[in-house]
Write a structure and sequence with these properties.
This is Multidrug transporter AcrB. The chain crosses the membrane at residues 12-29, 338-356, 363-383, 389-414, 435-454, 466-493, 526-546, 859-878, 885-905, 911-932, 960-980, 986-1009. This protein has 1024 residues and is an alpha+beta fold. Among the domains are: 1-31 and 358-495, Multidrug efflux transporter AcrB transmembrane domain (Multidrug efflux transporter AcrB transmembrane fold); 43-137, Alpha-Beta Plaits; 516-545 and 880-1019, Multidrug efflux transporter AcrB transmembrane domain (Multidrug efflux transporter AcrB transmembrane fold); 553-656, Multidrug efflux transporter AcrB pore domain (Alpha-Beta Plaits, 2-Layer Sandwich), CATH 3.30.70.1430. The protein contains 34 helices and 30 strands. Strand 23 (739-746) and strand 24 form a beta hairpin. Helix 33 packs antiparallel against helix 34 (981-1009).
Amino acid sequence: MNIAEFTIKNNVLSVIVILLTIVGGWSAYQNMARFEDPEFTIRQALVITSYPGASPHEVALEITEPLEKAIQQMAEVDTIESVSTTGKSEITVEIKYEASPTKADLQLIWSRLRNKVNDAALALPPGAGTPYVADDFGDVFGLLYFITGNGYSPAELKRYAKSLQSSLLQVEGVARVTLEGLRKEAIFVEISRQDIATLGLSVSNIYHILSQQNAVVSSGDVKIGNQRVVIDPTGSIDSVEAIQNLLISADNEGKVVFLKDIARVWRGYQELAEKLYRFNGEPAIAVGISGVLGSNIVKIGQAVDKKISDSEGLRPLGIELHEFYHQGKIVDVSVQNFVVNVIAALVIVIVTLFTFMGLKSAIVIGAILLMTIFATLATMQIVDIPMHRISLGALIIALGMMVDNAIVVTEGILVGVQNGIKKLDIANRIVKRTIWSLLGGTLVGIIAFAPIGFAPGSTAEYTGHLFWVILISLLFSWVFAVTLTPLFCFWLFKEAQQSSSTNEKPESGLMQKYKGFLRFALHQRFAVVASVAGIFVVSVWGFQFVKPGFFPASTTSLFVVDYWLPQGTDISKTEHDIEQLEDFVAGLEGVNAVQTSIGAGAPRFMLVYAPESTNAAYGQLLVRTDDYTIIDAMMPEIQAYIENTFPQAQGKVWRFVLGPGGGSKIEAEFTGPDPNVLHDLANQAQAIMVADGGALSIKDNWRQPISVIEPVYAKSAGQRAGVSREDLALALQTNFSGRTVGTYRENDELIPIISRAPEQERLDIDNIRNIQVLSSVTGRTVPIGQVTDGFRTIWRDGLVRREDRIWKIKAQSDPYPNELPADLLARVRPQIEAIELPEAYQLEWGGEYGDSKESNENLASTIPLGFLAMVLIVFILFGSVRQPMVIWLVVPLAIIGVVIGLLITATPMEFMAILGLLSLSGLLIKNAIVLVDQTDLEIGEGKPRFDAVVDAAVSRVRPFMMGALTTVLGVIPLFFDAFFKSMSVVLVFGLTFATLLTLVIIPVLYAIFFKIKSTEVEGAGNHV
């Protein structure tokens, strides 16, 4: 009793399995986790260290270098990138994929990183801050809102935002709620130099009073009876008025001076804001919400929506909460689209099979397809594979492939029943004859996707679930093909009434024509092989005209406008320009929301969005439109407006990419020991990009030099006056930027008390010559001119970058929106590579080319093992050499249809197209295995070899054509999905052409390899 007979005879058990599969699949569909993109791990952490007063090069050598040296000792570290700016070091540490396959492994590495950094911090110079390791900056806030309130102060908006944050953190499944764009408050004490001099007061004494008045200091306790009573004196500062009324001095005559007598004391906002947000033209606070790992973002989004709706009555009138990005709703729509695609694929399969195989066969195979989907969903939930872009796409890709095995079994049983064989007998016979060849073909089809499942790197990790979903679905398709398919056929097909000898169904006219053509091809076998080889050579030659690519642009109705002013620009200037740009973009037809970030990027609301680091010269617009199809026409208009209206700025309008990547599309990366030489090399590369005329946003990632005013400290004069270089620096800081001299406590907030000069003394740079410097030795002030030898303005780097402790600069640009990056790179690459590099300097290509190259190399590292596994399976199945040779010679022919399809549709050869090519090879091998196995079987049963080759091919025509047709039609809906378009083109055109060639070239190659003569036919007397 084989497995088919067991399933048929134990139909009660079979029905139980069917019901469990349906219930399990439906339950999984309702409850499994849902995301927009796969949760690939961002293996990066930031190490941030302050070093106030140091230049970028001082920061790089005194802070960044020792920390990098310590971090580099960790074996798990892949790359270390650093950017050193004035007073700040920022090191990005990326961990090797193989060292951190899971987030749990990564957390252990972060602990080791903190220990390394803490140890290295002990050797940092005096004045350096404590390094901070941020390992959560890669969190994705899939729900993004903005708070605005016309007429409300930033402090009032902040109070509401914090109350909303507390409320949202109570929602089940919410992990973090971040608030960004909060304006920092301060208590300003503006002391005039003239008043200080007139009253003869000690500035240091005033600072001491302000710092001590609100300090938290233990006053001890006392035992009273049996009680221990705490002593806590009053008198802490509890208002601005209390600060104004601080007693500064009193003399013997009873004259007292309060702080308000010599200073303007007021509460306001710090001018040097790091990051500002606006939404639809109004100042805003960003609210980002992330879910716990592995959660269902759809359900979290619904719970958040309910919480917000329930709390609307608590929101002050006039304050608005705007929903900008709601991943839950987007994912819900994606799942609904998946259901529509599944239904469409089912209809396509059933209609196709009904047309060619009849209604009952269509019902059988359609039912098997549904069972396979349910079983796959249930297994995905068990092994924690959520629904997202990749897994849903994999299911749609697998829809056509799932029916291949069922078609072969159903076709065999149907033909047997039509020829008069009993249903149970033919079910046993067909399953027995095909079970192992179908398993081998299925395994080959699965292994074709294996490189993406086991390849290292973020790109492979992003698409890795494609392999696992296809593995699960195809294995179930094989299991159900040899179990439930015979059962459904047994239930639906009528029992044969006559023996096969008297009721053999005649061949159709199409089959007779195919058989005649195949016999002709076998007679002209070498001419056929030469013709196919010629077509193959032409296709290989034509492949050079296929455009390369990486990942396609997203179909989300969002696009981005990056805006750069020269390095060193004040954030107020950036804000002014951005407001003007914002008004223009908001006025374009089809734009329904404009979110503006000034000084940095927005919170990471999508996995494929990498926010820009803090920089006052940078602004960004996230623009939401009514329809994504209007974006391409809108982008050149905005680009032209930026270039014409803001000639001093650089702008870049771009769309999101459906996959890893980011940054500039074209990046020429120069490394070497001397920053000055690197600047020269980068300038040469940028000049080439400018001369091309087809590049925009041309820059280097060190940005422009910045101007610096240098008061020249007179060491001898300073020592005589008791004024150190630090005293000079503090005096300048106090006058212009302000100096924190105390803390004001308000509930859970600590508001700094900042002393600075009045506005008329602070904003005029000429007043720098009138600054009084306070001596930390004598306590007296002296004019700045007594301790300096004048002032000079110099230009220096505003930031410097290193990678793996080597200076590195990138010359960057992007193509205009209507051009592919590959076209621009092809023009500028030869010229840039012709730049003469001094010894010890290197050029590498990053950008899209570098990302694509790295991803393809990661994929290529696993392809040999995949092909080896497929070769072994084929050799094990046949136990000889010639049959596998026939099968493998067919695989390269897949390129014929692929090249035709990519050129006709003008689709670039993207990363997903490479995966499509791998899967196509698996499908071809699978079909070839079944055909060669059928030929061996018929020869083994005693049929003349020439007849066996022809009859085996004829018997496989309908299953092959049905399998190819259902696969092709099943992936056609993906042609309209930007992410899977290139893969669908490869499968549709490649499989169509390859299937037609397979039905001719495999019999021809089989006849050549086994030296089958045309005389080996029935009645010829030669059955060798």
